[in-house]
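**Tokenised fold:**
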Amino acid sequence: MTDAELATALATQAGELLMGLDRAELGFKIGAEGDRLANALLVEALRRERPDDGLLSEEEKDNPERLARSRVWIVDPLDGTREYGENRTDWAVHVALAVDGVATVGAVALPGQGVTLSSGAPLPLPPLQDPPRMLVSRTRPPREALAVAELLGAELVPMGSAGAKAMAVVLGQAEIYLHNGGQYEWDNCAPAAVAQAHGLHVSRLDGSPLVYNQANPYLPDLLICRQEWAQPVFEALAKI
């Protein structure tokens, strides 16, 4: 099984597990239980299937031994715990492989929408929409995103998890996803790998590349957008 096939299979399996939990029985505990069970599934499978690789998971105690590894799996077992707990569809499961700091392989499952998107099976991009649609957090949209949207005349599209927002660009539901204000490597590694495989622009807000498997996994900002909108976004950022 290739790395991309493994990532896709595991993201899908974790999503199926999460969809199958008994909401009536678990009540308000469903988010925490979902995080725990999906993490256990992913970590056990990756340690079994790729025992020589490093591993970084939001729900697992960090092992600094990963810093000496060229290949490191970076996972978020449940991206969008709030949305999952509210029984929405804008949450995701992230499974990615960073090689020498680069998001090389990724799969993002959107279980509530019945789809898993993978770097190993890119889809054709839908037609552009103009004026563009920009994805922002439904609870705390960053100031920079709001300012850029105003300068570009973009339509704001509130949405939940980072993975759901990034995949909305891949699926042609928006043109731009700009985030600033706090993320970690597990929030954006798989989305970055999938977006890059689909030909999208992926970078930090200053245009520099996203670098993974760092001692401090804090990676607070990113831009995922259609190539045609990258330069206008950077020009708008420069005016803020």
In short: The mean pLDDT is 96.
